[in-house]
Write a structure and sequence with these properties.
The protein is an alpha/beta fold and about 260 residues long. Helix 2 packs antiparallel against helix 5. It is about 35% helix and about 20% strand. The chain is globular, with a radius of gyration of 18 Å. The protein has nine helices and ten strands. The N and C termini lie far apart (about 40 Å).
Length: about 260
């Protein structure tokens, strides 16, 4: 399906010559995402910096602007269409944030959130700092750490209302990465594809061992696309045993089974 955006034609399968605030505003509206009038402008500046920095370092392999609208910005913000996923005033950590998705778009859209963006590569954090400076963002903290190491720091362990991750690892591994950051009573929200039955089944033991309980996934499609997407919400009912996460590299090599 082709969506008409003002005088422009938008199709996720075809590139656009240059992204505009109007395109972003129309796309957010089509997908039912609540947003303030200044959000499209902020996303556009973020986008411009991402293209500029990506020319000199590897930040994203998705460089077609039509794809970037959906994959970097709209998909990140779809969590806002489900109000209970991210409560007002929540502390939120995005582990393995990369170029900032989904944590940075969420921070730009929700000034009430206290957002931590964590990544193992300093060059990515340098880029994110440039974005924060350019947009004068006040509700974001950057942390340089591997997921397994950061979760053992007192200032991060079981300190967050919400932990999010997108395109980081399979669920059994991701649960060990993220649940240690979530306080009891909080939740871990994983951005996944629409085909996750086997992955979710494989993660059940890890989720239980780490103190979580998986809720029924929320499935959705971005308007005008055939991409099947989902949110996996894991509620934290009890503290994660102190031995988790295991040392860096172990969760990926030897997932809890």
């Amino acid at each position: 399906m082709v969506q008409i955006l003002g005088s422009e034609v938008y199709s996720p399968a075809a590139g656009v010559k240059e992204m505009t605030e109007e395109m972003l505003e129309q796309r957010l509206t089509e997908c039912g995402i609540p947003f303030s009038p200044d959000l499209p402008g902020k996303l556009l500046k973020y986008h411009e910096l991402l293209l500029e920095w990506n020319a000199k370092m590897d930040l994203t392999a998705v460089t077609e602007e039509a794809d970037m609208i959906d994959r970097h910005y709209v998909d990140s913000l779809m969590a806002l269409t489900i109000p209970e996923l991210i409560p007002q005033g929540a502390s939120l950590i995005d582990v393995g944030t990369g170029a900032g998705s989904p944590g940075l778009p969420l921070a730009l859209a929700r000034a009430d959130l206290r957002v931590t963006l964590m990544d193992a590569q300093q060059k990515r954090l340098n880029f994110l700092q440039a974005v924060l400076d350019a947009l004068d963002v006040q509700n974001v903290t950057l942390v340089h750490a591997r997921a397994e190491d950061g979760a053992r720091r007192k200032e991060h362990r079981e300190c967050y209302d919400v932990a999010v991750a997108r395109a980081v690892a399979p669920l059994p591994v991701l649960a060990e990465y993220l649940l240690p950051y979530v306080k009891v009573g909080g939740r871990f929200v994983s951005y996944k594809s629409g085909k996750l039955n086997e992955e979710l089944a494989a993660a059940q033991k890890a989720i239980h061992v780490l103190g979580g309980e998986a809720k029924e996934p929320v499935y959705f499609q971005l308007t005008g696309t055939e991409d099947e997407r989902s949110f996996v919400c894991i509620e934290k009912g009890k503290a994660t045993p102190k031995k988790y996460p295991r040392k860096a590299g172990t969760p990926a090599k030897e997932p809890i089974q």
